[in-house]
Each structure stands twice: as C-alpha cells, then as structure tokens.
Amino acid sequence: MLGKADLSALDARLAGQVAFAHSVLETKRDPRAATELLDWSRLLAPGGLVEEAALRREITLLAEAKDVRRVAMLTRQYSTRFAASLYAADFFRELAGAIARLGLADDPANYQLLSNAAAALPPDGRQDFLLTLAKSAVVYARFDAAAGAATEALRGARADTSDAARARLYLAASQIFSDGYDAAAADLQSLAASKLDRTDANLLAAARRVAAELRIAPDAAVVNAQERSPGDGDKDKADGPALTIERAQDALKRTSALAPMHEGGAP
Fold this sequence. Notes:
Blueprint: H1 12-26, H2 31-44, H3 49-64, H4 68-81, H5 88-102, H6 108-117, H7 123-139, H8 143-155, H9 162-175, H10 181-190, H11 198-214, H12 220-227, H13 240-258
C-alpha cells in the first residue's frame, strides 16, 4: 500500500514520514530503493526527527554497501547539524565500529575522508569517535586505520588521562606487527592497567602476550624435525615450486584412488 502512495500528492511533512516508513520495509528486499526513499524523506522533512533518523539509517545502509564517499558526505551533514542530538553519541560509536568491521578506512584516502567528516563534532564527541574507531580497528586487525585514529586521539588527549592511556594502548597494539615493534612493545609494558576499564585492561594483557610470543624463538629440535622428517628420503631435497608440485601430484593420486568408489553413485 505504501508503494502505491504518490509522495508528491501528500502534505510535505506527511510525505517525509511515509517515505521513511516505506524505506524501512524495503531495506532487506531492495537496499538501493530504501536508500532512495531515505533521500526523499530527508528532502521532504528537513530539520527535524525524520531527517535525522533518515540520515542515520542511510549512512548505515551506505556503509554496508561500502560507498565511502557518500558515507563521508552524509556523516559530515549529520555531524554539522545534529551533533547535539541525544542519539548522536551512540550513533557515532556504532558508525566507528562499522567502519572498522567493514574495512572502510583501510585505504589512507578513505580514512582521511571519514575522519574529516566527523571533524565538526564537539571535541569530546570527536575524541570518543576516534577512540572507538581505533579500538574496533585493533579488534578487527585493521592496523593502519587503528594507528591513524589512535594517533589523532592521542594528539587531542590531555596527558595522564584515561583517554591518553587508551590512545597509547590502541596505537601500540596496532604497531606490534610492524617495524615499530620494539617501541610498541615497550609502550605496552609501560602502560598502567589502572587507567583503563576492564575491557581495555584485558586488551592490554592480550596485546602484551602477543607481543612477547612474537619474539619467542622456536626450539631447535622442533625446527630440525620439521626440516627433515624420518623416512622422507630424497623428498626433503625438494623445495620451493618443485616441492609444491610434488605434493599436489600426490594429492591428485590419492583423490583419483577414491574416485571409483563414487562411480555411478551420488557425489
């Protein structure tokens, strides 16, 4: 019934609400159509709850579609016009998590677009967005994005605050797999867990454990056993592409031997 409604024939305020409701129903069936209806909803009912809700919902849909440029454009609109909303803080935390989960900020240029889009937020709101993005990016192994967000957050944090400790944690955790391992591992050891909440203290313990294990040399006997297994004979002399081809041929032979069992039967 909503699909048959002529938006142009309705009062503008009612048309915006109808477009929004219709978009909700279309979201799973046709996300692109839902996005277009949200565009209509924003245009027909500007400046109020309908537009704000439409912006939040459309940004989420575009993030799932990995349309980074439109996500950045609409995020800038939201941060400029609705930063004082009661819904804004939770929305930006959810957006930061989605950006990390979907890898939207993996490319440095995309990271800069998204960071700039949230620049109009009040200082506390922007700091919360950056720290949430940095933490989520560490959890999802998006280390470049984590380092970028943590660096920005650390720049805006006062010394000896929990925000500074969190930013240092996320930055160091994002760098232990890089050439900056030594400095990152040292910073992890110097951080005081007492400045972190429970989840961040657990993350600190996990990051310290991983950093330590990265530099544990394997036992020499294990290495020697893996390099030469008894009974392999001349096979151990093969390496590189030759060894790969030999293993593939052996696998094909084993598979071929199983094939007659299935002839004439179900796969």
